[in-house]
Amino acid sequence: MRAIDFSPLLRSSIGFENLNRLVDLATRGESDAYPPYNIEKVAEDVYRISMATAGFTRDELDITAQDNVLTITGRAVEAADGEKREYLHRGIGKRAFERRFQLADTIRVTGASYADGLLNVELVREVPEHKKPRTIAIDGQQPALEAVNDARQAA
Questions:
Q1: Cα–Cα distance between 104 and 85 in angstroms, integer?
Q2: How many domains does the structure of the chain reveal?
Q3: What positions does the domain SHSP occupy (predicted)?
Q4: Closest CA to 26 of 63, 62, 52, 1
């Protein structure tokens, strides 16, 4: 079912040029679930991505935010000390990965931390003043309720 008709949605929508691209990303899905991650809402307009990156060091992880895409990359680097390890069982996955997250225009990455095998990326929603709801005056006049309140305050 690749042909989806969005015309009913687009009749009352303006500025959703990226809708087709987002639907393609959603229908494609993730082919690999490595490494596992959580997305949590910490507070109003504050979010956190927690990614299980056991076995990786800070130097092997890279976080990049560009054009509303957050990319987290892990590069598995063999031990530089020349010590060759022989594993009888290797259950801790340490393979290279790249995970991408699509961010809204109002989401900004504020920081990252790494502790106990978890990489935490902090995000915050910042809505600019020009995107917040506002009352539009008709013919340059205030709405009737505001005019009454202004008259009461003046008296």
A1: 44
A2: 1
A3: 28-141
A4: 1
